[in-house]
Amino acid sequence: MLFFKFFFAVLSFSSLIILFIISEFSNETVLNNSHISKPLFYKISGTWGNHEGSLLLWLLVLTFFAFFYFLNSKNRPTDERLLTIMFQEVIILGFLFFLLKASNPFNIIFPVPKEGLGLNPILQDPLLAIHPPVLYLGYVTTSIVFSSSLAGLIKGNINNLWAKDIKKWVFISWTFLTLGILLGSIWAYYELGWGGFWFWDPVENISLMPWLSLTALVHCVLALEKRSILHSWTVILSIITFTLGICGTFLVRSGILNSVHTFANDPERGLYILFFLFFLIFLSVFIYFIYEDRFELNNKNLNLYTKETSIILNNWFVMYFLSVILIGTVYPIFLEVLSNEKISVGPPFFNKLIIPFLIPFLIFMSIGPNLKWIKNNYFSKKLKLIIIFILSIILSTIVSKFFGNTALNITILLAASFYLFIITIKDLIKKGFKNYSQTISHFGFSLLVLSILLNSIFSNEITSNMRVGDEIKFSDKIIKLQKLENTTEANFLKLIAYFKIEEKNKTELFLEPEIRIYDKPETITSEAAIKTDIFKDRFLVINLVKENEYLNVRYQEKPFMLWIWISAITISLGGIINIFKKNEKQIL
Amino acid sequence: MKTRIVLYIIFLLLAFSKSSFSNDQELENKINKNLRCLICQGQSIYDSQSDFAESMKLVVKQKIESGMSEEEIYSFFKIQYGEWILYDPQFNTKNFALWLLPILVFLVGGIIILTKFGVLKKRL
Fold this sequence. Notes:
The structure holds two protein chains of two kinds. By secondary structure, chain A is of the alpha+beta class.
């Protein structure tokens, strides 16, 4: 059964790809999103660069994982497996119905048009071609966790063994989501913005929310496995994670949100997903309360200085971050419906509510992993930890003193992240191969916070209008616009500007940003020129000024950009290691 | 313990001593980042290249040059275009829930943890 579903999903998806490749414009989806002159690679990626195709891809991944789960869960009780598959079927059915009813990718158009309307040019990008599939792999695996936790709940199987088996799925999902978000933000960095990589845009927030609840789940499933605590919380988190994923699909597809990432929307679709969402929430809450008494009772006493306490603290803070993002994203929608007043919730809101709480979070994160389960004699290590703490305060004071004008909370945050950074390095060296997936991920996280902070403190930029031959001075550099050149590419016109940047020590750097004018659909995009070095990125982007021979030029120096990407990769590397580590143990 | 407190105080003083903007360009960028480009899809005027954003940027520049403070510029735009244009939502009667709900979630979460796992309460 499952295999046939998967097989037919593969069949229909590959036939859609073929339709895109041969540019069959009698198909409505192909017509709206493709074009004869588009390069082959983007013809293929165009398959999922639109609503209908991406939904079909979603379904494909969903059926694949249902099948994969079936093959890989032989050590679970049969009735639990069947129930899991059943819930999975409900989800597949829901999406299948949605696909056929509201977003059929195989609608036929007659008479057959000669030419397609083309794919939105900013989506014509190699990173964006793999971004949705990776993200979908992450989202869809949360559905397995969701189904399995409901099935386990009904059968009264939520215990440490269940946690051990589901952990693998949680990690797979978490790793893919991390990578997916990373790809999206790298894309935003060089394609969308003027040097930003995270805008606190509603669509970005929506992808971050399931990630946060998964992060909480990753930790809490460990506590369940090792200590048999937090049974009900694990199930609740599984439900939250999956419904947040669906909720995100609803918000993105319905067009309620005002976002840079909104490419396709249609109210009818939104309504359907909303209905499906409510159905799933109702179903899971219903099941939860009916079978609640099947949880193993846990009245275990916890000691304060233990790993389990720090996991609870982690979950507490992560759920807070999640609620900030959730409320910040949906509050404007509710306010508009209720009082017809429009407000914007942007980066300052999130920064103000998250940064103060990030500080204790980072400190707990430095201490937590060094504690033991059940009982711990924490005080023996205290001296060393305090020394590191003082060291990190001094370090951050030097950093902020050296460059001036940083606010108080940033300095403290810097201190906290230095603290975590040094401690994770210490752990990495000391613990070696013991529990290294955790240490690597935590190290990556500290590196991430640190790089983002240093990046935001030390970024520097200049904006100016320039003509060919003009020069501008920027600190100790001279930026010169040497010449402009027009070329014609397969599906766009290109204007290249040649810049020379001369440093004080006479080293020269050449940057060539572009403006592209696409014809199908007619769009103008700016392609930034980025020179990535180990410690800083140089980012140059140009823009046409109307009725003028001037170019609007923005030059930015952004330190530690590379490290932001590296740290995110390090974080997911920890997840990957964990997935494979688990497998090795099972074989042995 | 004492050294830590002393260090804290020193470092608080250090941090407070510097907090003003070094030049107009930085202030301008900051303001631009906090204003929504009204005709765009969720972009600030800093990130947008539309005509609307470009002309707004000019207005911001002029206002700074005429000596208006950051707050005055925000309220100028708020009067002109409504609160929708400000990315930093103000704390007022209709937004208080926006600011307080997350804090409430945090507190409730804390209470749940304390009641569920009494140990924390016992020890503290």
